[in-house]
Amino acid sequence: MIQHIDVHSVLQESSAGVYTNLVTRPTGRVVRERIHRVIASARGAASITRMDFNGVGCMDYSCADEIVARLVRDWPAVLLLQNLTDGHREAIQGVLVGHGLAVLVEQPDGTLDALGTPAAAIELVEQLVAQRLARRLPGGTFALIAT
Amino acid sequence: MTRLVDVPTQFDDRSFDQFTASWVEATKDGDRLLFDAHAAEWASPYGLVGLLVAGEAARHKSGGERALLTVPTNADVVSYWARAGFFQEAEELFEVHGRVPKGKSREESDVLLPVTAVRAAEDVHEVVSKIQQRASTILASELQLDPKATMGFAMALSEACQNIVEHAGVGGWVAVQSYNWRRKLARRVVVIAVADAGVGFRHSLEPTQAKRFGDRWGDAAALETALIQGVSRFRDPGRGQGLAGIRRYLARWDGKISIRSGTARIAIVPSWDDDVPLKEGLPAFPGAQVLIIIPEQGSAKR
């Protein structure tokens, strides 16, 4: 089962509709805590949590660390990020490498990409394939089986 | 008695220590200060936010009494200071003497972000939001910055401002401007200046880092620890990402960062600049002052 989190909506709820950018640690902390609550309140255990960043403006390094790195580190389900801008990628990549972590990114064509440490990324993909949640495509790319 | 603090004619990061030397001399006896800017011909965003820091520190030292400030006599200069938002912030800190233009728009093409107070996380949100609306087009069209660079610019700005909120213990100011840097580079640059009159890097890092350095501990060691080693006063492994992120961004776009705190200044120096990486024994000045410079991309280097 895949659970869907609309990060922009969570940000809006967290800031009474005021903020469109994921900046500052306090904001990141509030957003992560809300995401935690959303995930925890879902019925049944999701094996993949898809975080959709559509509509999120700037994300700084502090928020990338406070939200993405901490969720990757602490949450048992596999995180899958979607609709990332180049700016989001830049922030997340640097932070994850600093932690030795990786996260999977679902591209518009459905294939999977990874951000963070290459070794951790390979391990993540292998884990998904072993759990029959993802499959290898011709050409060496990967895509989700579960939707 | 009133003591005079000279504001340099060309007031930027290069002349800042001339200003701080005058500041140290004038603050020895606890007398009221007069900041004399009448001869100022130009001030960078770094100079303007640095002057506000001096004003705040002077007010704090005097128990709330505002220092005096004589404004530049050159009408164009004082007009620029007004457009850059300096006087809006200065009136709380200084008893201003001289003609200050009123009611002029602060929205000028070269002033990407006027001098803006940063006291809390909400202010950082506002700064990032403003810079995204105002700066993206200018950064792309005037500096030929890749759209990726403009997004990274907002991130770097956010992190620089957060240093005030998280570490300074008091508020500070930020200003962003683009200008043609003929003297140094013969191309356009965009400059972020962030300054506060807070506790400074040494004081902030002392409880967790001083022991490690022993006798070598001081302002320079604290700056190296923060900027080069990415160490934060927080023990959490995720902390210290901000300055590390700014460094990565500047390495990619050939930019410069310098941080002055206490009696030292550290810099990551790109090939186009001749600054020194570390300078110690400077005149003591409160808080921290950060300068970030991103040059126009694609044109020939000096």
List the SSEs and their pairings:
The complex is a heterodimer of chains A (147) and B (302).
Chain A lengths: L1 E5 H8 L10 H17 L6 E5 L8 H14 L3 E5 L3 H14 L2 E5 L5 E5 L1 H13 L3 E3 L5 E3 L3
Parallel strand pairs in A: 1-2, 2-3, 3-4
Antiparallel strand pairs in A: 4-5, 6-7
Helix pairs in contact in A: 1-2, 2-3, 3-4
Chain B lengths: L1 E5 L3 E2 L4 H11 L5 E5 L5 E2 L1 H17 L5 E4 L4 H9 L2 H5 L3 E4 L13 E8 L2 H22 L4 H22 L3 E10 L5 E10 L3 H14 L5 H9 L13 H12 L3 E7 L1 E5 L9 E2 L5 E11 L7
Parallel strand pairs in B: 1-3, 2-4, 3-5, 5-6
Antiparallel strand pairs in B: 7-8, 8-9, 9-13, 10-11, 10-13, 11-12
Task: Summarize this entry quickly.
Chain A is an alpha/beta fold and 147 residues long. Chain A is built from five helices and seven strands; from the N terminus they run βααβαβαββαββ. Chain B has 302 residues and is an alpha/beta fold.
Give an overview of the whole structure.
- The complex is a heterodimer of chains A (147) and B (302).
- Chain A is of the alpha/beta class and 147 residues long.
- Chain A has 5 helices and 7 strands.
- Chain A has one domain (2-144): Transcription Regulator spoIIAA (2-Layer Sandwich).
- In chain A, 45% of the residues lie in helices and 21% in strands.
- Chain A has a 5-stranded mixed β-sheet with strand order 1-2-3-4-5, sandwiched between helices.
- In chain A, helix 1 (7-14) crosses helix 2 (25-41) and helix 2 runs parallel beside helix 3 (61-74).
- Chain A is globular and about 45 Å long.
- Chain B is α/β, with parallel strands linked by helices and 302 residues long.
- Chain B has 2 domains: 1-99, Transcription Regulator spoIIAA; 106-302, Histidine kinase-like ATPase, C-terminal domain (Heat Shock Protein 90, 2-Layer Sandwich).
- In chain B, 40% of the residues lie in helices and 25% in strands.
- Chain B has 9 helices and 13 strands.
- The radius of gyration of chain B is 18 Å and the shape is globular.
- The chains are: A alpha/beta (147), B alpha/beta (302).
- Chain A binds chain B through residues 18-21, 23-27, 57-62, 64-66, 69-70, 85-87, 90-91, 94-95, 98-99, and chain B through 121, 124-125, 128-129, 132, 147-148, 151-152, 154-155, 158-159, 162, 165-166, 230, 237-239, 241-242, 244-245, 248-249.
